[in-house]
Every structure is written in structure tokens, then in C-alpha cells.
Amino acid sequence: MSVLVNKDSKIIVQGFTGSEGTFHAGQMLEYGTNVVGGVTPGKGGQSHLDRPVFNTVADAVKETGADVSIIFVPPAFAADAIMEAADAGIKVIITITEGIPVKDMIMVKEYLGDKDCRMVGPNCPGVMTAGEAKVGIMPGFIFKKGRIGVVSKSGTLTYEAVDQLTKVGLGQSTAIGIGGDPIIGTSMQEAVELLLNDPETDGVVMIGEIGGQMEPDAARWIKASGTKKPIVGFIAGETAPAGRTMGHAGAIVGGSDDTAQAKKAIMRECGINVVDSPADIGAKMAELIGVTA
To answer: Which protein family is named in the record (predicted)?
Structure first.
């Protein structure tokens, strides 16, 4: 079992023939991911990377049975692409696109409310189940099949955590990059819940950052759940000046509860093993699991 994507997932790429879609779809195929086709309006009937191109997601689903879509569509058109995927019956919609207007995401969030699908992102590195499916822009070579899940707002810190877990011999089940925008499809709590409910995940790394309340919400849910699985946490942005956006659109301190210090305190109160440096993530998890790093 795995979370969100696995070797049986049938994946299409929206924005397939563009430069970003082409490069990353090629990397996904090289990893062995089951990419069954792609969508670029006006180019239906063509072949790209030895996969069929369709004009619409509905056509792609009808012909390939696709159940996962990854979106590399430019920001101005990304909201329409997400809603099109949902309408076509795609179950997991992974949106890589950065810079989607907040008003568009408000509309998308509302639109997806009654749809039978899950969106991850936007502005995220994707989802990867080690050894099975790379759906996004994560570097496949640092992954090793294992039993530790990773949830992160930060792409770069996702890779850092994954690399450390591999080096201490633990490996990963699924890594979920939830994205750093103010409005995203899957919250930190929802992603952590997926992994804690996965029988093939023995522990979770949870990486957050300043801004918003996702980390405290997730921490309180974790405490209430009574889980026995070890959780290692890290919050980025401890030295960020108050009121300044740092990299991600959602990484801005709006009040005293949005700071790194406040979030870390809440996480510790809820039983999460918080490290003060990202360099300690792998070693801390190895210690908790009982593996010699």
C-alpha cells in the first residue's frame, strides 16, 4: 500500500508538450512512472515522448483510464486546468504551477468541494512513492524504498529530509510536497493523516515554515489521534523578519502565533520531536525508530 500514487497509478501530464512538462515528464518516465499520456489543447492526435497527446483531459481519461494528473500549465490557465481534471474524473490532481492568483485558488477550492478528488499543491514539488511513482519534480535518485513518510511545505527541505533518511538507511514510503501558497488543496493535517493511516509507514517527517496555522492544526490533530508512530518536525524561517514574505507566498508572519518559535512550542507540547536544524532530521528519526545512523 502507498499514499496518493503508486506503481498502478495511470498518470497524465497537463501542459505535456511545453518545456517544463516535457522535461519533467521525461524524468518521470525515466524513473519508471506509469505516464500514459498528456494534454495540450490543439495538439490532440500527436505523439510526444512516445505517449499520446490529447486535446482535453476527458479524452485522455476515456482513452487511457488515467486517474492521476500532474499540472505544468502556466499560472493564468492553471485554475481552469485543475477544474477540467476534476470534471473528467481524475482522482488525484497534483499542481506544480507557481504563481496562481489567490482569487483563482479561492474559486478552485470552492469548485472542488463536492468533487470526488484530491488536489495537492499548487506551488509544490509533487508526490513521490519511492521505487514506484515519481509525480512531480523531486530528484528520484535520492529516494530509497522504506517506511518513513515526509510531508513538507518546502521543496528543497523535502529533498534534504529524503536524502538524510536514505543515508541513515531508513528510506521513504511516500513524500508529499503540499506547497507553500496561502490556499492549497491538501493541508498538512490531511497529508499527515494519510501517512499515519498507511500501514506501510512507520514514522513521519513534518516540515513547516512561518505563516498560517497549518502546523499547529496538524500538531493538535496528531495529539488527539493518539498515534504511536514517531513524528519528527522542523519549522523553517526562525530568523525571518516579521511582516516580510520569505520565498513562499504563504510564508509571512501575520501574528504572534505564526512565528517559528510559537509553532515549535505547540508541536513539542503535542508530542512531536522538533529539531532546531534541518541537518538533524534523519538522525532524529533513526534514533526514534531504533536504527543506528
So the answer is: Belongs to the succinate/malate CoA ligase alpha subunit family.
